[in-house]
């Protein structure tokens, strides 16, 4: 096939895509099959345009990254102007993030340390490097590199589980060689109620599961509890307010670190850190996505000064190889990414966007609830800041995502479990634009309800 020209048509691009590109979480059948390929060409604010000139409302902010919206000249300009390769910007980002963490949690995050990465999963790997055995929630998406993929029961075939099984299935199955275990999220739709004791609320039940899990594994071998404060891919799932204070006590008691995966939640919940919702400071925060509003890749691991002092507390000044943290990435602290992060943080801070985001989120949630609650296929409409979820009664989210995209030009996302639609609109989405998003969803979901009803009544007639 000849190389693509600047003037390539949609058909040329589709053919080339089918021939050459491997899509993440994809399969060749998905590229050829009914899922139509959309190729975006430009964007502005909350709008995107594809190569055939069709416009879309982006209620996902890219892959939940573009907090400030698309086509921000100020962010592109600072990247363009950053021509030298000094590390000053990385230093400034670390100081800035350490300051933001201290502002959110003065008692524990003052003097916090920051390690920069090029993305979220890399951050989880880095945080995980402080630990060997972890507990975490079901329904959680930590990333798709080896260690994060191993943490998901549904996808663990891709990581540790498959590797161990390759050696010896019985070794994997035995408790002593398991690397991860998980508990139910303290949320009414995701907690297995049969595991709850009488008189216990969701937060208390999950905390009890956590402690039971730590004790079962042997606390001395459990390094960390990893969780999202508000689950993103899980479908904007926030946690029962009693849970984290109890979890913190349990983790402290057993010497287990708390790692908050804030990769999705950073600057989306009406706070810088999602954990501010619960007033609980984790030991390690991992952020990414909104750190640069998606203009360039960057993530960060922020951890308490206590960990720093404990992990690198050398009695002598002579360093052995084993004293050094054996961890780094080529793109950590890249100066162009770092300068974009600084400009993005400036904009969010100077324009009071964290507070505004809380307000935008409340308005969006009201609109969604008004339009969608009561529809047959809708189980729950929920939201925290600009993380919004529409939980469905069955696993039809991918079909809904496609219909809304292709028929109404609205971008939202089916979660991995296909039972929920996730919306993370950029701060710049207007009320009128969000009304259009909610209208499109209403039209597709209400026609789905009618179809479902007719299918049921048909089967009853038989
Ligand atoms: C909560 C959470 N953790 C981790 C990741 C993985 O981040 P990355 O894709 O940058 O590796 C994601 C990505 O969506 C995420 O939402």
From TrEMBL:
This is PLP-dependent transferase. Keywords: Aminotransferase, Pyridoxal phosphate, Transferase. Its cofactor is pyridoxal 5'-phosphate. Pfam families: Aminotran_3. Belongs to the class-III pyridoxal-phosphate-dependent aminotransferase family. One of its GO terms (molecular function) is pyridoxal phosphate binding. PANTHER family: ACETYLORNITHINE AMINOTRANSFERASE, MITOCHONDRIAL, AMINOTRANSFERASE CLASS III.
């Amino acid at each position: 096939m000849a190389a693509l020209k600047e003037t390539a048509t949609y058909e040329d691009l589709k053919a080339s895509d089918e021939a050459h590109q491997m899509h993440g979480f994809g399969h060749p059948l998905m590229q050829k099959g009914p899922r139509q390929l959309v190729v975006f060409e430009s964007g502005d604010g909350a709008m995107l345009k594809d190569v055939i000139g069709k416009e879309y409302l982006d209620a996902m902010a890219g892959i939940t990254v573009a907090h400030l919206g698309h086509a921000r000249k100020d962010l592109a300009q600072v990247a363009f102007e950053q021509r030298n390769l000094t590390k000053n910007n990385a230093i400034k980002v670390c100081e800035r993030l350490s300051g933001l963490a201290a502002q959110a949690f003065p008692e524990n995050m003052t003097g916090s340390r920051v390690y920069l990465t090029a993305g979220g999963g890399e951050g989880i790997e880095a945080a995980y490097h402080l630990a060997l055995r972890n507990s975490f929630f079901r329904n959680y998406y930590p990333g798709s590199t080896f260690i994060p993929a191993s943490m998901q029961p549904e996808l663990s075939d891709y990581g540790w589980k498959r590797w161990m099984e390759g050696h010896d299935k019985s070794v994997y199955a035995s408790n002593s060689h398991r690397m991860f275990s998980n508990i139910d999220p303290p949320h009414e739709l995701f907690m297995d109620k049969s595991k709850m004791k009488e008189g216990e609320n969701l937060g208390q039940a999950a905390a009890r599961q956590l402690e039971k899990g730590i004790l079962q594994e042997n606390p001395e071998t459990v390094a960390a509890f990893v969780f999202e404060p508000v689950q993103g891919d899980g479908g904007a799932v926030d946690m029962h307010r009693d849970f984290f204070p109890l979890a913190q006590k349990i983790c402290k008691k057993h010497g287990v670190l708390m790692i908050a995966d804030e990769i999705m939640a950073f600057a989306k919940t009406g706070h810088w850190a999602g954990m501010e919702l619960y007033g609980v400071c984790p030991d390690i925060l991992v952020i990414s996505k909104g750190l640069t509003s998606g203009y360039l890749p960057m993530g960060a691991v922020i951890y308490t000064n206590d960990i720093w002092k404990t992990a690198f507390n050398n009695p002598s000044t002579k360093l052995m190889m084993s004293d050094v943290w054996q961890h780094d990435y080529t793109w950590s602290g890249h100066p162009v990414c770092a300068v974009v992060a600084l400009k993005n943080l400036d904009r969010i801070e100077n324009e009071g966007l964290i507070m505004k985001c809380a307000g935008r989120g409340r308005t969006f949630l009201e609109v969604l609830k008004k339009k969608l609650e009561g529809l047959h296929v809708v189980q729950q409409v929920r939201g925290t800041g600009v993380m919004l979820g529409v939980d469905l009664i069955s696993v039809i989210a991918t079909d809904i995502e496609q219909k809304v995209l292709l028929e109404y030009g609205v971008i939202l996302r089916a979660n991995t479990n296909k039972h929920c639609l996730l919306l993370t609109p950029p701060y710049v989405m207007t009320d009128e634009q969000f009304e259009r998003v909610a209208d499109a969803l209403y039209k597709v979901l209400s026609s789905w309800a009618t179809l479902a009803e007719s299918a049921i009544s048909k089967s009853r007639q038989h």
